[in-house]
Amino acid sequence: MLFNSFEFVVFFVIVFSLYYKSYNNLKFQNTLLLISSYVFYGWWDWRFLSLILISSVSDYIIGKAIDENSNKIQRKRLLILSLFINLGILGFFKYYNFFTESFTDFIALFGFESNPLLLKIVLPVGISFYTFQTMSYTIDIYRGKMNSNKNLLQFMTFVSFFPQLVAGPIERASHLLPQFNKKRKFDVFEFKEGAKQALWGLFKKIVIADNCAFYANQIFENSDSYPGSVLVIGVIFFAFQIYGDFSGYSDIAIGISRMMGIDLMQNFKSPYLAENIQDFWRRWHISLSTWFRDYVYIPLGGSKVDSSLRRSLNIIITFTVSGFWHGANWTFIIWGALHSLFYFIQTAYSKNLNTVKILPASLVKVFNITITFIAVTFAWIFFRAESFTHAISYISEIASSTILVNPLSYFKEMGSSIQPIIIVISLIYLSVFEIANRNASYSFQVGHYRTPVKTLIYCSLLLLLIFFRATNGAQEFIYFQF
């Protein structure tokens, strides 16, 4: 079930109406949320509900056992069991074919042939998200950072909470789980603010992401037919497609949750205004980057290790693993590794820049933001490409003399001449709010504008949503495949 579908509107109206009619009954509210979440997820494929059930029940039991056990060895064994179950399910469905094919290709280099058994299975939607969410729960209990939850209903609701179930944010149990232990009453202010946030998310998805996708998909899928100038524009379109798509989903999830009295963490914070790669990852998919920081980077030793080589290795591992999290393809691994390379270049550049201050601080800031955006956009080529060969071919064409070819005639052949203009206007619209709310808690705040201006903003958003939803239909979100 898609947030931008008519089915979801009907679904949410029914759930929301029943939800607040029972505000005095916490158990009923949580039961309703649990059933609604299972219906929401089962809308894609009801068979995969068993995976959520296994993760929920096993981590509830294991978390409770870890909390009640004082023996360090037994606690560690229980944690390993939890990790084995979660990573085993994730690895089987997401990475089995990748490892099998990679091993087959490797032994072929030495003259050995193999006929591997490949599985024809569909990747369960959102499995990477809810798996990491439940894993952090048992790890935090093992570390003594929180106590286990004794209420199975509340825990299962935490794991399957439908607004953020299939594409995040990846919530920590310490933040989200206690909220299912409190009665939620209707709050007019929170409802209105949540609705605004959801509206802004729908704008990012339907108006920006889906329109950018129209061109980005055509260009990437037929990259050998276009000159370098068109390919440059194609990857820029993809940069805004994936941002509008994914941050749009997060905004909708946060907004819907807020309407229901549940607070979710901020997942994006104007990432394309980042001044360096480290700053970018403080702003992009924040729930994932902080997850890898707390559960991969710091356990490896983080930046506290004595050896600079070991510190660099920790950074490379963290970025590379985060790339692999996104998909079972070498392109994602290279994408993650590229970000570690950019991080090292940025660190060296920053040290040298501090010794020579020639330009004004404002110009240095603009320069840093521009360079960071170019680096991030370059890496998106590997993220979007079908294979390593495709990515190299794409980059080679950009680096050729065809980058000087006028791209306008090619875009006229692709579709409507008005669509690129709409995209540019929408991106300007987006940029204004991104700059205005660069460090705000929520990405869409218009409270400081006068009432006529606010009315104009809301009406323009609604008109654009209605028009492009009717034109493009309900398109899936990119991160459903991860």
UniProtKB/TrEMBL annotation:
Transmembrane stretches, start-end: 5-23, 43-66, 78-97, 117-139, 226-244, 313-338, 358-382, 417-436, 456-474
**Name of the protein:** MBOAT family protein
Q: Which family does it belong to?
A: Belongs to the membrane-bound acyltransferase family.
Gene Ontology process terms (BP): alginic acid biosynthetic process
Kindly list the GO molecular function terms attached to this UniProt entry.
Answer: acyltransferase activity
Classification via InterPro entries: Ac/AlaTfrase_AlgI/DltB (IPR024194), AlgI (IPR028362), MB_O-acyltransferase (IPR051085), MBOAT_fam (IPR004299)
The species this protein belongs to is Hyunsoonleella flava
What GO cellular-component annotations does this UniProt entry give? plasma membrane
Keywords from UniProt, A to Z, are: Acyltransferase, Cell membrane, Membrane, Transferase, Transmembrane, Transmembrane helix
Q: Which PANTHER family match?
A: ACYLTRANSFERASE (PTHR13285), PROTEIN-CYSTEINE N-PALMITOYLTRANSFERASE RASP (PTHR13285:SF18)
Tell me what topology the record assigns in the membrane: Multi-pass membrane protein
* UniProt KW Cytoplasm keyword: no
Q: Which domain of life is it from?
A: Bacteria
Q: Where in the cell is it found?
A: Cell membrane
